[in-house]
Amino acid sequence: MDKMWSGRFSASASSLLDKFNASIMYDRKLYKEDIEGSLAHAAMLAKQGILTTEELILITDGLNQVYKEIEADEFEWNIADEDLHMGIEKRLTAIIGDAGKKLHTARSRNDQVAVDFRRYVLRQNLEIVKGLKLLMQEVIVVADKHTETLIPGMTHLQHAQPINFAFHLGAYLSMFKRDIARFEDSHKRNNISPLGCAALAGTPHNVDRGMTAELLGFDSVSVNCLDTVSDRDFALEILFNISTMMMHISRLSEELVMWSSYEFGFVELSDEYSTGSSIMPQKKNPDVPELLRGKTGRVYGALMGLLTVMKGLPLAYNKDTQEDKEGVFDAVETATISLEILKEAIKTMEVKAHNMESACGVGHLSATDLADYLVEKCDIPFREAHFITGRAVAKGEELKTDISKMDFKYFKEIDARINEDVMPYLGLRHSMNARTSEGGTATTRTKEQLEYFKTYLKETK
Ligand code: ARG
After folding, report:
1. What is the whole-number distance in angstroms between the Cα of residue 322 and the centre of ligand 1?
2. Which end of the chain has fewer beta carbons closer than 10 Å to its terminal beta carbon, N or C?
3. 156 is an active site residue
4. Residue whose CA is closest, atom 12 of ligand 1?
5. pTM of the model
6. How far apart are CA 304 and CA 299, in angstroms?
């Protein structure tokens, strides 16, 4: 009968219940947030005259000691204590005596856990933003070297139009920048203090919620306590934001896996970030991007898990909510290491520019340019130009020649209106550099885009 809530019970909890009910094995991760929350709460209670100065000193010293014990790995985490909140409070009271029992005045574990978990999530939003920026920086270093390197631009994984490799990487820079905006936006929206909401309805004690909010670094105080103690939108948001970020990482990873194959040969991952096979001595496997692709699945799982936990809960707190943490912890750890290892893999990979450019020599990548030529120089309506170009492509297929290398006489045969000045239009580099519209692949435009990302990173440091 040593539970903090045992007053109305006459029999002890079964050890099976302890095991099932406890979150202390994983929520102990929040000890820093929990102790900081208690320090702020105690300071506020003292300022409001609810605790005496002596009690505040005892509590503050006691909490600092508990903090040191945890840091030194001397703290005894016990599942019979159920969660970190009760584990820490129990230890505090063991150290300082009766004053420890006053700490929970005007507070419930419901607002306590909401404070701890929310602050953890808010901090992680910003940590992930840092990781994303470092990744972007590394992508820019590679992109800067390849604003002229041709690579087949694809749709349906079929050769479409020639682009440059920096432009391709620029697409991912755009995605990562949007990801950052999502984490920042979520951070701003959820930077609201739950402390003082107590169990669900607020408290009759004369608390100063603004003071604890400020001490804990929150922007403001929540508006409705019933909502606050059961709101886990902030956790869902970080899961969604990580999921979207991992989806982007996974798409890039899929490309890295493909590009590392003999068939593509566009990149070679460094030995440091590749693995071998236990049976096939020749193998060099792209495990890093494969795992990044695979880990995306578990993050989606965490998002779906928590959405499902929350969907049927009547107001306000329900124990189901305790299931909110493990998925988020796992997703945050996955996101953090994923960003770091992707950055290293990109930094150390070899870009095989020559292979990228040779791959552009097949698949008639400049077909659209021929059609554009017919429109521009021969005044042929685009639909007809499309058909004529199709005939040229068919001829190229027949001759097993890419139209960029096909002899002029064949074009003339297909349509007499075509003149010799068509030839530059068919050049792959010309094709890439012709796409000068805003956001286009032309080297000049690509450089402009890289500048945009560099300025963004500089200005948001
Ligand atoms: N361990 C709980 C959780 O993580 C803390 C809140 C418990 N509150 C309660 N009334 N049982 O959600």
Report:
1. 6
2. C
3. yes
4. 322
5. 0.95
6. 9
